[in-house]
Amino acid sequence: xxxxEVRLVVFDVDGVLVPIHSSWGYLHExxxxxxxxxxxxxxxxxxxxxxxxxxxxxVEAWIRAAGxxxxxxxxxxxxxxxxxxxxxRRAVEELHSMGVMTALLSGGIxxxxxxxxxxxxxxxxxxxxxxxxxxxxxxxxxIPIVEALGKDRVLRRMVSDLGVALEETxxxxxxxxxLPAFRVAGCSVLVGDAEPGMDIDYRVSNVGEVPRIVxxxxxxxAAGSSRPSR
Length: 230
Fold this sequence. Notes:
CATH superfamily of one domain: HAD superfamily/HAD-like
Number of helices: 9
Low-confidence stretches: 226-230
CATH class of one domain: Alpha Beta
Order of helices and strands: EHHHHHEHEEHEHEEH
Radius of gyration: 18 Å
CATH architecture of one domain: 3-Layer(aba) Sandwich
């Protein structure tokens, strides 16, 4: 897709704004259910379970490994130890100063994504949501807002709500799970070098480089220059 002037930058969270590649995996490591997590992922990849069932099995694995009920406050404390990259703060601040909107779109867990959005001053975010009962205890299952390889559908809805065209949207991610969003966004940015050979527009070492790309791209488009070849 051809990029117009960038008015919105949408960031993935895990591996882009925070130094963990999966908030699901982070909790599996914390509770000691990593091996069960691998089995659950294989079931999903083979088409033997749907995304909701994958979420349910993962949550059940945490509770079983913990040997007790898990509360929302406990998950907030555990995930609260995951820091936000300093360069992510600077990037969002710089984009806002340029008049560019920002949003978060993650296949991770809402407990983490909501906190990151709050710390960065980002109002719009989407992530998979865990469910808790009236007493605050974690319930197996959840609400699959951002299904695996389904970020394109959520991105389309997000930009429509924000009154921005896909051509005016830059998506920033770090893995093959972001490919659907990369393909529909006007401009794609891959953070890191873990996914060689992906068809993206820009590759950066960290998210702090994003404002420079936006500034240069918008300046070039405003001047009527053609976009550089990939």
